[in-house]
Each structure stands twice: as structure tokens, then as C-alpha cells.
Amino acid sequence: MQLSIIIINYNTFTLTCNCIQSIYDRLTEVDFEIVLVDNASVECDPHFFINKFPDIRLVISPVNSGFT
């Protein structure tokens, strides 16, 4: 693995999907992983990210603990 990308999400499904898609579109020559941490979003079920991007690693936090 050359690169690990960690994305924090809180109620920004569309914006986060655009971010993830942008990474897939641009990092074609790099071995990478995406770890998405959902901070207790209520906008939609965080598993929707896995449906759209099955290769990401999803961490679902039961509480919104912020960026730290």
C-alpha cells in the first residue's frame, strides 16, 4: 500500500461521494486505500457509501467525536 486516505464524514453524503470519486478518477497509478470515518451522521445510512464504493473501508462511529 503506497497511500492511505482517511476521510471524515458528517452529514455530507453527496460531497463525500464526489470526493471519493475524484480520488478514484485521479489516482490511477497509485496503490491506495480509502478509509471513511462516519461521525454518527443522521442524513442517511452510512452503508450507502459501501453500496456506491465497495472497496472503501468504512468505520462507523456511534458518536460525533469531531475531527480528532
What order do the SSEs take from the amino end to the carboxyl end, as H and E? EHEHE
Oligomerization category of the chains in this entry: single chain
Question: What can be said about the biggest beta sheet?
Answer: 3 strands, parallel
Q: Order the strands across the largest sheet as they lie in space.
A: 1-2-3
Shape: globular
Average predicted confidence as pLDDT: 95
Beta-strand portion reads: 25-35%
Annotation field: number of helices? 2
Structural class call reads: alpha/beta
Distance between the termini: 24 Å
Number of strands: 3
Low-pLDDT parts are none
The percent of residues in helical segments reads: 25-40%
Please give the radius of gyration in angstroms. 12 Å
